[in-house]
Amino acid sequence: MHKKIAVLPGDGIGREIMDGAIKVLDVVARHFGHQFDYEFALIGGDAIDQEGTPLPENTIKVCKTSDAVLLGAVGGPKWDQNPSHLRPEKGLLGLRKELGVFANLRPVTCFPDLAEASTLKMEIIKEVDLMIVRELTGGLYFGEPKGRQNENGEESAVDTLFYTRREMERIIRKAFELAEVRRKKVTSVDKANVLETSKLWREVAEEVSKDFPEVKLEHMLVDNAAMQLIRNPAQFDVIVTENMFGDILSDEASMLTGSLGMLASASLSDDGPGLYEPVHGSAPDIAGQNKANPLAMILSAALMLKYSFSMNQEACAVEEAVQQVLKGGYRTGDIAQEGTTILSTDEMTQKVVEYL
Ligand code: ATP
Ligand code: MG
């Protein structure tokens, strides 16, 4: 297959880890007989410095005309004092909006060789294999009215939690489609005892579930879900929820298995290119030192192979290579354990390439 990939390394460790992902993709292409063409573009702080905007028009064009988008990370202390329209994160939010990627997928799987780094008991953590599906383009973060007021000296602020039925339906449907090829269980998380949006969400979830007779649907209140993720995370297969609940629960879940440097994410739209990025940020404290863990970026590229290109075998090969590297006792500093060999970013990439 011939695919065009937009590559947005971004800031901080973004460039270093992107290097790793591309080396791995090159091996995949060679071995499986595909052709991947990469088109690089600017985003975030780098784009502010060079183009005066965190999301240049050209970047949007490159992304929209590609089959998928790989993104490293954006942001850093250099731009922290910038006015809000010149913040690196604005570039990422804008890109998500432009691409219409309403579904954010975060797989949380246990890497058995890293399990002892988790704060949970080994026997609990070993069984963890869940996927959080978070609505990404609606809800409290975008609803209007939104803003600050001052009436006769009384200050106030407002955010609005708003969803249309259509927005709920498409994200819930995505979750069911994923569950159908996994362990066939969807946990729909809401706060239906207090929120109107959650009551509609529950109705929509029940309706969508009729189209997936083999998938079991359960409803869970978000406070309970936060507790259950720690108490018994193995009970979950696919969790689907609205934007803010998903934001919080996915960060919580990301810590179940140990390391931030291992976690990948996919953001999908209905028909346009998907956006693939590691869960971690630009790690300014270690940027430029060849120390960053490239595995989350490499695993994000594997998600791209799976979800945008339907290259399941290829994706599995990459995931398997990562498992083998860990099994072989190789680590970057962030996941170092006693008796393991510490590698630089480049060396870690090289190891994955060798196993692949
Ligand atoms: P953001 O606001 O962009 O989410 P953040 O402030 O949450 O960023 P990160 O950039 O994710 O923070 O970094 C948090 C910590 O984890 C830092 O100490 C960083 O060095 C470390 N870290 C993050 N990603 C990696 C990685 N790939 N390899 C090694 N260490 C990492
Ligand atoms: Mg963060």
From TrEMBL:
- Gene3D superfamilies named in the record: Isopropylmalate Dehydrogenase
Name any one GO molecular function.
magnesium ion binding
- Cofactor note, please? Binds 1 Mg(2+) or Mn(2+) ion per subunit.
Q: Which SMART domains match?
A: Iso_dh (SM01329)
Site annotation (Important for catalysis) points to 141, 191
Binding positions for NAD(+) per the UniProt entry: 76-89, 281-293
E.C. number, please?
1.1.1.85
Keywords from the named record: Amino-acid biosynthesis, Branched-chain amino acid biosynthesis, Cytoplasm, Leucine biosynthesis, Magnesium, Manganese, Metal-binding, NAD, Oxidoreductase
Q: Which GO terms describe its cellular component?
A: cytosol
User: Which catalysed reactions does the entry list for this protein?
Assistant: (2R,3S)-3-isopropylmalate + NAD(+) = 4-methyl-2-oxopentanoate + CO2 + NADH
Oxidoreductase is among the record's keywords: yes
| Isopropylmalate dehydrogenase-like domain boundaries | 4-352
Residues binding substrate are 96, 106, 134, 223
Localization terms from the record = Cytoplasm
Give the family from UniProt: Belongs to the isocitrate and isopropylmalate dehydrogenases family. LeuB type 1 subfamily.
Function recorded in the entry = Catalyzes the oxidation of 3-carboxy-2-hydroxy-4-methylpentanoate (3-isopropylmalate) to 3-carboxy-4-methyl-2-oxopentanoate. The product decarboxylates to 4-methyl-2 oxopentanoate.
Self-association state and partner proteins as the record states? Homodimer.
What PANTHER family does the record point to?
Answer: 3-ISOPROPYLMALATE DEHYDROGENASE
**Name of the protein in question:** 3-isopropylmalate dehydrogenase
Organism listed in the record: Melghiribacillus thermohalophilus
- Its gene is leuB
